[in-house]
């Protein structure tokens, strides 16, 4: 995620949260255009974060990334 932040911060405002709960706090406080979530995060997985994000900000684009070949997580995210 840090490498994504370095790449994107040149043209975008980037907010990096350390876990899903702090990301939800950010979503409750300000409008976010795009959420990029790692499937394997501390305290909350990426699919759960994106589900909660959809409830809070339904128009926000959501992207799930993972460094693992977790096919079930990808299927859950798509559904």
From TrEMBL:
* SUPFAM superfamilies reported for this sequence: CheY-like
Q: Does the keyword Phosphoprotein apply?
A: yes
Matches recorded under Pfam families = Response_reg
Keywords from UniProt, A to Z, are: Phosphoprotein
Ranges for domain Response regulatory: 1-79
Q: What is this protein called?
A: Response regulatory domain-containing protein
The biological process GO terms on file are: phosphorelay signal transduction system
Q: Which organism is it from?
A: marine metagenome
């Amino acid at each position: 995620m840090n490498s994504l932040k370095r790449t994107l911060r040149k043209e975008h405002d980037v907010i990096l949260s350390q876990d899903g709960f702090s990301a939800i706090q950010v979503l409750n406080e300000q409008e976010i255009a795009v959420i990029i979530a790692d499937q394997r995060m501390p305290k909350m997985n990426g699919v759960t974060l994106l589900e909660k994000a959809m409830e809070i900000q339904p128009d926000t684009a959501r992207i799930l990334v993972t460094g693992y070949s977790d096919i079930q997580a990808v299927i859950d995210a798509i559904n």
